[in-house]
Amino acid sequence: MVAATIGVSALALVGCSSQPSGTPTATTTVTATTTPAPADGSATATPPASPDPRPSTGAAGPGAADTAAPADGGTASGAGTCTVASLAGSITYGGGGGAGSQYRNLALRNTGKASCTLQGWPGVSFVGGGDGQQIGAAATLERNSPHPTVTLAPGATAYAALRIVQAVNYEPGTCTEETPDGYRVYPPGSKQALFVPWTDDKACTETSLHLLSVRAFVPEGQQEGAGQ
After folding, report:
1. Are 72 and 15 in contact (CB under 8 A)?
2. DSSP letter (8 states) at residue 6
3. pLDDT tier, 177 (very low <50, low <70, confident <90, very high otherwise)
4. Fewer beta carbons below 10 Å: N end or C end of the chain?
5. What is the DSSP letter of 86?
6. 183 within 8 A of 91, measured Cβ to Cβ
7. How far apart are CA 45 and CA 194, in angstroms?
8. Which pLDDT belongs to residue 44?
């Protein structure tokens, strides 16, 4: 029994080793249960028909280098890290954030046939122009947010809260507003991205303005606005 406990602890330590120096480490593992598709009002994960703004492969995206993922691709539970091939993205409303900002929930659902894990912060940016061109600055990472390892059963969903500063808050001439096609999302530790359509918010084209910030993934029921 002692040997088994030491083995599990060693794997947990390896899983946290890929986080940047000085950042908090994951301390809990949460298993999400199967949930139905997003409720009415959420975006679907189908990109515009033409052109397709989703990159198929590429270097780590905005913020992706700072994301946390198990170094061995899995956890002590045996589930591997969720990949783009087994994830579908959507956006739901998450309520007001105060001081001229609002929250949205970035939802990633496991569409595969096996359980997988998400742990840490996604890389997120507005994209537009019908071709996946990034608009403005990528989301900053809210490092003080809870960051458990979320194990997703097939059909289950994890959520990362997006805080969006409203473009209208800026002085005239400071922000060049643009309606995005949606978001480019790099799951934690991934060098591949998926496209999540969303046109209900405004972006600023200036990279000096940081409208987006994102929290780490949490399981169903712990997302922004849950229970309200």
Report:
1. yes
2. H
3. very high
4. N
5. G
6. yes
7. 9
8. 38
For the chain, the structural domain boundaries read: 58-219
pLDDT digits (tens, 9 = 90+) for 58-90: 333 433 333 333 333 334 456 899 999 999 999
Pick from 30, 25, 31: nearest CA to 12: 25
Q: What are the structure tokens assigned to 58, written together? A: 């590429």
Q: Residue 42 above 60 pLDDT?
A: no
Q: Which residue has the higher pLDDT, 22 or 131?
A: 131
What distance in Å separates the CA atoms of residue 211 and residue 31, rounded to the nearest whole number?
31
Q: How far is CA 213 from CA 81, 187, 220, in A?
A: 23, 15, 20
In this prediction the pTM is 0.67
Residues 120 and 69 sit within 8 Å (Cβ to Cβ): yes
Distance CA 167, CA 145 (A): 24
Q: Which residues contact 171 (CB under 8 A, 6 or more apart)?
A: none
Question: How many residues are given for the chain?
Answer: 228
Q: Is 159 helix (H, G, I), strand (E, B) or coil?
A: strand
- CA 155 distance to own-chain centroid: 17
What is the Cα–Cα distance from 27 to 222, expressed in whole angstroms? 16
Q: Which residue has the tokens 């990472």?
A: 141
How do strand 212-214 and strand 140-141 relate by DSSP bridges? parallel
Q: Which residue has the tokens 């712990």?
A: 222
CB 204 within 8 A of CB 179: no
